[in-house]
Write a structure and sequence with these properties.
The chain is of the alpha+beta class. It has 20 helices and 7 strands. The radius of gyration is 28 Å and the shape is globular. About 0% of the residues have low confidence.
Length: about 550
């Protein structure tokens, strides 16, 4: 027996290097495959986004989705090519991509929702809270009810409380105002009553959509595909979702300054952004452990930091991460679409997309009419809330990964996003061709106070602008250039926000009445210092004499 054990031990020791070598080879092969797949996704996603944006004048997200559909395992990716074989294969159950690719897509969705929360303007939301709240609630409930009912009516789900029907209703709820914001910006309507109300309503809409997602995911985990409705269990799930949302958001907003102080202690923009992203990932993991979706925690962390003075710094530092990861996410979402399986759902997809638009127009338009908007203004708000995009795709991806919806229904989600993104922009542009939508709500810009400086030459204005930016930075303001092609800057320090703009020979500082005195003081101090500098130069002699002395000195130095 001892001899047999010794022989067995010898064989194990002899075979261990071979097994380890084979295991290492398998791991290396898997990593190599992942790297090659990732390279193809990046190349095709960026190329598709560029082509759609440059030549078709459509959002880049559409090009990234289409690129994913084309190279996915259900299209070109499933064809066996000479030497290289198949680009992508479906070998992991219902998922059409490898766990590694889906994992990096999940991280990308966390980054996307973190930055979406970071972009949320809480001050604007509070200013138009009543109109935005009613419009957002009306749009969310209307689209959820219509989306769920249409799934039952078409026989996709057996009952209204079936997880599949609830998930389709949640997908229909998710608004993406990126397209709307771009149109409003081009039409210079971001600060009009319809524009501000639409953007503030989108905040409520996103919050309700994410909470609905948490509730539906909880129902699906608790009951699977059963039609039995346990209202007590649903109440517990809803309370947990609302409780997690409210507690984390409230604590985060209360501790926002302390969190910011902790981040700023490291005095490195790169380190600050890395730690902030780490906190977003941590809260996303906590949300998942609590039985909710990870994107909820990421969105909350972005919302917490949205009022801090490091907001724009985080945007700048994480821009590269966003540009790298987010196209991968949309391309992977496109790869999950089985075009052949969608043949039986084309009619449902078209009806679902039409209902998604009408539910937002009606659900948002009626509360807008109640808030003294006219029909034109209500239509503008309803159309502005109609596009679906990244949030709908994230929710659809979660439903597909958990088995609540099929690849066919996920394709319907893609179809709805494509149709709303293509149909809404021309309709919204047409809606803004008429007169005002209301005369009763004030413009968001009306409360701002300005400090204006006029100069005889644009070069002097540019020189003074550089000095003012340096002065604000010296006073611990974070300076963010809004548009690389224009001299428009956002200045933030804790809860103080200002904007600084140069237009040819004029410099304008805009801020709230409470911060006007501080802006005037900083500008006055800098102008006094500049005056003293110019007086000192005047004492040195005329500008021509100074220039001659400098040139002669430089020539003398060269000769020496």
């Amino acid at each position: 027996m001892k001899k047999l054990s010794a022989i067995t031990l010898f064989l194990i020791c002899a075979a261990f290097p071979l097994v380890a070598h084979a295991a290492g080879k398998a791991v290396t092969h898997r990593i190599t495959t992942f790297v090659l797949e990732l390279s193809l996704i990046i190349l095709f996603a960026r190329a598709g986004g560029y082509l759609f944006s440059r030549y078709l004048k459509q959002p880049t997200v559409l090009g990234e989705l289409v690129a994913g559909i084309i190279i996915g395992p259900f299209a070109l990716g499933g064809i066996s090519f000479p030497i290289i074989g198949k680009l992508f294969t479906v070998t992991h159950g219902t998922m059409a991509v490898s766990p590694e690719l889906f994992g990096i897509a999940t991280v990308a969705s966390i980054v996307l929702l973190f930055l979406a929360g970071l972009e949320t303007d809480i001050s604007m939301f509070l200013r138009f809270s009543l109109a935005g709240m009613l419009v957002g609630i009306g749009g969310a409930l209307g689209s959820f009810i219509f989306g769920t009912y249409i799934a039952v009516w078409f026989g996709i789900a057996p009952s209204f409380m079936h997880p599949t029907a609830l998930f389709l209703g949640t997908i229909s709820t998710a608004t993406s105002v990126g397209i709307t914001a771009r149109i409003l910006s081009e039409k210079r309507k971001l600060d009009c009553p319809e524009g501000v109300t639409t953007l503030s309503a989108a905040v409520i809409d996103d919050v309700l959509g994410i909470i609905m997602l948490a509730i539906v995911v909880g129902i699906a985990k608790a009951h699977g595909s059963s039609d039995h409705v346990d209202w007590g269990r649903i109440g517990i799930i809803a309370a947990k979702a609302f409780g997690f949302w409210i507690v984390c958001t409230a604590l985060g907003l209360l501790l926002a300054r302390r969190i910011t102080s902790m981040l700023k202690w490291f005095r490195s923009p790169e380190l600050i952004s890395s730690l902030a992203l780490g906190l977003a990932l941590f809260l996303a993991g906590i949300a998942e452990m609590a039985g909710l979706a990870m994107i909820i925690g990421a969105f909350i962390m972005g919302l917490v930091l949205s009022r801090t003075d490091v907001k724009h710094e985080l945007h700048d530092q994480l821009h590269g991460v966003y540009q790298f990861l987010v196209p991968i996410f949309f391309c992977v979402m496109g790869m999950l679409v089985n075009v052949r399986a969608m043949k039986g759902a084309i009619l449902f997809g078209l009806v679902f997309s039409l209902v998604a638009i009408l539910s937002k127009v009606i659900g948002c338009g009626l509360p807008a009419l109640a808030m003294k908007f006219n029909l034109r203004g209500a239509l503008r708000i309803g159309l502005g809330m109609s596009p679906r995009g990244e949030v709908a795709l994230i929710i659809g991806g979660i439903g597909l990964a958990s088995g609540i919806i099929s690849q066919e229904l996920f394709g319907v989600t893609i179809m709805m996003s494509l149709i709303t993104a293509l149909v809404i922009p021309p309709l919204l542009l047409r809606a803004f061709e008429g007169g005002p939508g209301t005369a009763l709500l004030p413009s968001a810009a009306g409360a701002e106070q300005t400090v204006t400086l006029d100069f005889p030459h644009a070069q002097i204005a540019e020189f003074v602008l550089a000095r003012l930016l340096k002065a604000f930075r010296h006073e611990a303001f974070y300076v963010h250039r809004v548009d690389p092609g224009a001299s428009i800057y956002q200045l933030r320090r804790e809860d103080i926000a200002m904007s600084l703009t140069q237009e040819h020979r004029r410099i304008v500082v805009k801020t709230s009445p409470a911060n006007l005195h501080l802006a005037q003081l900083l500008v006055a101090e800098e102008m006094l210092e500049l005056g003293e500098t110019f007086e000192a130069l005047k004492d040195m002699g005329s500008a021509q004499e100074i220039g001659k002395n400098l040139i002669s000195g430089a020539l003398g130095a060269q000769k020496t």
